[in-house]
Amino acid sequence: MRFETLEQLADICLKENKTIAEVMLEDQAKETGVPAEDVFRQMAEYYQVMKEAVRKGLTGNTKSRSGLTGGDAKKVADYMRQGDTSLGEPSAMAMAYALAVSEVNASMGRIIATPTAGSCGIIPGVFVSSQERFGWEDDKLVRGLFTAGAIGYVIANNASISGAEGGCQAEVGSAIGMAAGAMVELRGGSPRQAVHAVGLAMKNCLGLICDPVAGLVEIPCIVRNGLGAVTALAAADMALAGVGSVIPADEVIGVMLEVGSAMPSKHRETGKGGLAATPTGRRLTRELVEQRRRKAKEAKETKQPPSDTP
Amino acid sequence: MRFKHVFSIIGPSMVGPSSSHTAGAVRIGRVARQLLGCQPEKVEATLYGSFAETYWGHGTDLALTAGLLNFDTDDERIPEADIEAEKAGMSIEWVQGKGNGPHPNSVKLKLWAGERKAEMVAASIGGGTIAVYALNGFDVQMTGEYPTIAVTHTDSRGVIADLTGLLSREGVNIGYMDVDRKGRSEAAMTVFELDSAPAPSVLEEMARLPHILEVTMIDLTQRS
User: Fold this and answer.
1) Residue B149 — φ and ψ, nearest 5°?
2) Which residue among A210, A274, A306, B201 is the one 20 to 30 A from B20 at the CA level?
3) How far apart are CA A179 and CA B80, in angstroms?
4) CA–CA separation, A170 vs B191, rounded Å?
5) How close B81 gets to chain A, by Cα (Å)?
6) Cβ-proximal residues to B143 (8 Å cutoff; 6+ apart), any chain
7) ipTM
8) Radius of gyration in angstroms for the set of CA atoms belonging to chain A, rounded to a whole number
9) pTM of the predicted model, to two decimals?
10) How does pLDDT run across B156-183, given as a tens digit for each residue?
11) Which candidate, B124, B3, B195, B17, places its Cα nearest to that of A108?
12) Whole-angstrom Cα distance, residue B65 to residue A35?
C-alpha cells in the first residue's frame, strides 16, 4: 500500500483527485495481483452477507448457545416503530441493525469480521440502515467498505484491532472510526473530513476495556456494537458540519496504542476484570460452568448404555 | 506491516461468535483432516487453556468438528456440526488438557480412519489466524495461509535437495519450510508453504522420489 497513515492517505486522495475508496481498491489490486473487478466482487459478496445478517437478526431466533443473549435487536426495532424514540429513527435503526448482526454472531450465524467478530455489528448497522434511508445502490455501499477498510488498515498497523492486545477500544473503537469515516465519504464529504471523523469518533472510545462475561462475545459486546453505530453516525455528522479533530486522527490512533499497551491483562479479553468480574458477571460465569458440566454428563450417559445390555 | 491488505480488515466471512475461538478452530480442524487425508472415524481432542475454559460458549467444539468434516469458516452447518459428524460416522472424545499447552488457545488432535492415523498440535492466535506446532509427532510449524505440502521421508542426504529441486523445476516458489527428524537416519518430516498450489502430478512425482514415505497436501486456500 502507498499509505501508512491517514494523513498520507488523504494527501494521495487530494493529489490524485480520488476518494479513499478508489485509492484503497487500486492499491489492493496492485498489492495482491488480483484484478480490481475481482477485488470489488469479493467485497460485494461480503456486503450481501452483512445485509443477510441484519435481516436474520431482526427476524430469526438469535438466542445464543449460552442462553445469555438474543432478541434485543427486535425489541429496539419494535420500539422504534412506535415512533417515539429519544434518538430519532435513523439512529435507532442503525442501533437495531448493529445489535441484530452482533446477535447473529453470538448465536453462531454468518457474519463478516469488521474488523473482528466482536465488533461485526457497527459497520453493517450504519451501512444497511443508511442504504435504506437514502435509497443508495449496493455498489455505493461496497465502495464504502473499501473506505472503511483503508481506515482499519491504518489503525491495525499503527495500533491494534485485537481486544486481547489493546482492549475493546481496538475492536469496537476501530469499527466506530471506520464506520464514521466511511459514512462521511458516502455522504459526499471530502477525504480530509472523513479523516477528521475518524479522529472525533476514536477520541470518544479511548480507554474502553475488553471485559466479556465468561469470556464470551456477548456481554457487553453486543450492546457496545449497538451504541457504537450511533456514535459513528454522530461523529460523521460532526465532521460533515465542519468540525475538525484538533488532535489529528493519526495521533489519536497513537494514543490508542499507548493506552492499550498500558492496559492490565485482566482488561484485555481474559474475562477476569471489569464487567466480567462483577458479582453478577461472576454468578453468570459460574452458572454457565455448571450448565456445561450438566450437559457433558447427560451426553455421556446417553452415549453409554448400561453394561448389561447385549 | 502486520496486516497486509483490505480483506484482513474487512473479513473473513465466518460463522460467529469469535474469530479466534470459532473461525480459527474450524481452520485447525481442517488442517488435521487434510493431514489424515480422508474423513476421520475417531478423534480424540485435548483442549488447553482458554479453549478448555470457554469452548462451550464459543462453540469451539462444534468449530473443530466442522473443520474435521472439511467445512469452511463460513459454512452455516457449523452450529449443527455434531449432527453432521454423526451422519459422517465420526465420533469425537473431548479431553480437558492440563496447563496451557504451547499457547493459551491450543488443542491436540489425534485422528483415526481404518489403518490411517494422524496427530497434530495447533493454536488459534487471533483473528482466525492459526499456528501449527507439530504434525504426526514431528515439531514442524505451518500456518495454513498457503498451499502446504507435508512430506514424510527418511533422514538421508539429498532428500531436501531433491524436493526443492522438483518444486523449482515446476515453477513453484517456497515461502517457508521447516524440517524435523526423529533421529539421524530415522523418519523425518519436511513442510513447505508455497506461493501457488502445485499440480497433482507434481505430488505424484514427489512421492516417487527416493526415501519418500508419504506426501500430503494441506490447502485451506481452496474452498471445500
Assistant:
1) -115, 130
2) A274
3) 33
4) 35
5) 12
6) B129, B130, B131, B132, B193
7) 0.93
8) 21
9) 0.87
10) 999 999 999 999 999 999 999 999 999 9
11) B17
12) 35
